[in-house]
């Protein structure tokens, strides 16, 4: 009985580990990909009225509609994360995204602070969003 329990526990951890890597975000074919610089930040209140949660997978963008979903990929290490836009910013020239601390951790960019990324808006779709033309600014 102990052996069966041990095998079952091992299978649960193995499939959980595989499920984590299988469900990593990826880029969708046919949707535009933008190249820009991203940083991470800590704030107390967001433009959407939510309190900033550094454990949430969220980001700030200057022009995308609040509630948009964006896949972000760190060009250097190829790690990706899916974030929801819930704030405005960054207010530093040359940057397009401010990521939450957890999103930055998932991308492996906490030490660097600013990295080159590829971003792809997956919701709302580009053909519904006229502001997307200026998304990389």
TrEMBL record:
It is an enzyme of class 4 (lyase). GO terms for molecular function: lytic endotransglycosylase activity. Residues 37-118 form the RlpA-like protein double-psi beta-barrel domain. Its EC number is 4.2.2.-. It comes from the Bacteria. One of its GO terms (biological process) is cell wall organization. Keywords: Cell wall biogenesis/degradation, Lyase. Lytic transglycosylase with a strong preference for naked glycan strands that lack stem peptides. Belongs to the RlpA family. This is Probable endolytic peptidoglycan transglycosylase RlpA. The gene is rlpA.
């Amino acid at each position: 009985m102990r052996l069966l329990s041990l095998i079952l526990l091992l299978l649960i951890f193995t499939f959980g580990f595989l499920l984590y890597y299988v469900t990593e975000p990826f880029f969708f074919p046919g949707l535009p990909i933008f190249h820009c610089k991203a940083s991470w930040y800590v704030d107390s209140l967001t433009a959407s009225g939510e309190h900033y949660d550094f454990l949430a997978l969220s980001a700030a963008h200057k022009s995308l509609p609040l509630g948009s979903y964006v896949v972000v990929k760190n060009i250097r290490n190829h790690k990706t994360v899916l974030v929801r836009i819930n704030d405005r910013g960054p207010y530093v020239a040359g940057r397009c995204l401010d990521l939450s601390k957890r999103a930055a951790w998932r991308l492996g960019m906490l030490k660097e602070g600013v990295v080159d990324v590829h971003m792809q808006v997956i919701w709302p779709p580009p053909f519904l969003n006229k502001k997307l033309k200026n998304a990389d600014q």
